[in-house]
Input
Amino acid sequence: MTTETVQSHPIPAPLSQGEERTWAMLAHLSVLVNLFTGILGPVVALIIYLMFANRSKYVAYHAMQSFLFQLVVWYGIGVMWGVVGFLSLLVVGLILLPFACLLTPLLLIGMALAPIYGIIAGVQTSQGRDFQYLWIGSWVRGLLDHE
Output
């Protein structure tokens, strides 16, 4: 008869309120990473989400919000122009170009304001206050409530 050792994975302890505030703030401030790397801010927010999703709904919510907000703002222009360019060539030619020209200033303003918005979110969450990005906050809350 052999004896088997069963290794159990310890359940991570929930975060303290101070830790939650700190990690939520850092998730929002990850937008500043884009200023130096151009693209890694969403990766930082996603890593924070993955590290703490099972330990804190508060951190999970704010990290996922920051991740999606940055994807929309920072990658929105590239994706939009890629789609417009592709469809312009294949389907409607130059008809979509004015649409992209109209949206570009809005997305450029969003890119300019994103670091400020991220700092505001970071400060509010570090103080224990909830923060919701416009449109994205309720979307993330709906996504996480279905998990």
About this structure: The chain has six helices and no strands.
